[in-house]
Amino acid sequence: MKRTFTLATLSFASFFASANAPTPKNIIYMIGDGMGPAYTSAYRYYQDDPNTAVVESTVFDSMLTGMAHTYPDDDTIVTDSAAGATALATATKSYNGAIAVDGEKQKLKTMLEIAKEKGMTTALVASSQINHATPASFAAHNEARGNYDDIANDYIDNKINGKLPVDLMLGGGTQYFIREDRNLVNEFIAAGYQYSDSLAQLEQIEQVPAIGLYAAKGLPFALDSDPERLTKMTRKALSLLEQNEKPFFVMIEGSQIDWCGHANDIACAMAEMHDFAEAIKIAKDFIAKHPDTLLVVTADHSTGGLTIGAQGQYKWQADVVKGVQATAEVIAERLMASDNMQEQWQSNSGLAYTKEREVLLTQAKQVDEEALVLAVKKLINEASFTGWTTSGHTAIDVQVFAHGMGHEQFIGSQNNVDIATKLISFINKQ
What we know:
The protein has helices at about 10-20, 35-45, 80-90, 110-115, 135-140, 150-155, 175, 185-190, 230-245, 255-260, 265-290, 320-325, 330-335, 340-350, 355-365, 370-385, 415-430, and strands at about 25-30, 65-70, 120-130, 170, 195, 210-215, 250-255, 295-300, 300-305, 305-310, 385, 395, 400-405, 410-415. Helices cover about 40% and strands about 15% of the residues.
């Protein structure tokens, strides 16, 4: 078992530097789940204007400050989202599956809870269910990330100075908040929260506190639905927090970058990256008007072992990725339901219906839909020269991006708990 890092065991120099830095009034913490360095590089090429000689920079390039080490306090160096988020939320490393608890399954105080104690307004925004591992690790405590109902209960039961922990929540998860045994939405409404259950009616939220739940679990993938649903929720959240005028802490997660990585679906991943990048731009625009705000962006880990270049060829075809109009699962569903495979393939993948592709897709369709999903991904990955080494996570260092007041504190190579330590130091000075 690796040595557990806590606020007390971190280097004096790291703590001293953050303690003497200017104190931002507001903190925007954005986590791209599964977003390793290959994702931000791929996104740069995905966004490139082919009509110019230079590859244009992205919002990520404008904010890069350093790297972070992601290993958990476990018998492995490969973290899961729960341990990664616990480190990023509490400045303490824990075991895979832990939701803001230590190795002895004791509660760890999170920066969101500290912010609430300091009188700051608190918020969570995610494209996953709002009680998924990353947002949960900021406002709940549980020994196992899969205990979704219990984690949802904590959003009511985990009182901070007698108050609910999170003032604003936007994401998915109705099946965990409206249950036969307990209707948490009704409890939120009774506590004075405005409730929204339609993303199309997002603008009708007019107050904090509020909770918006827009899917039974996670929201539909960006590629299959609204391509800027996280961007819209981010814009709304910052608008509400701005109107509230109090200092605030908000964690915003690009949750489904990770899910696309697990699926080895490159078009899905780039659509999620675009939504996350646009949400980051909204946060940067907020700082332009409120320079006393700090924005920190990072990832909990990298997913899928993505490589932009494969098959021994020195190329990556971003135009192929751009031509894909749906996730592999949706393309497979449409192929299964259609009598015209060629039309469905060409309109959804943007690729020619060659004899070789016809044979592979037809054979896979005769097996089952799962085999067809794999065939679709294989053909798109081959055509774009995209490589994947795993359907799980990797231990590669992830990037750290920062902008606004105090951003210079995040320069260099650091442990993921160092990021949390510095943010907690800022919050404690409120």
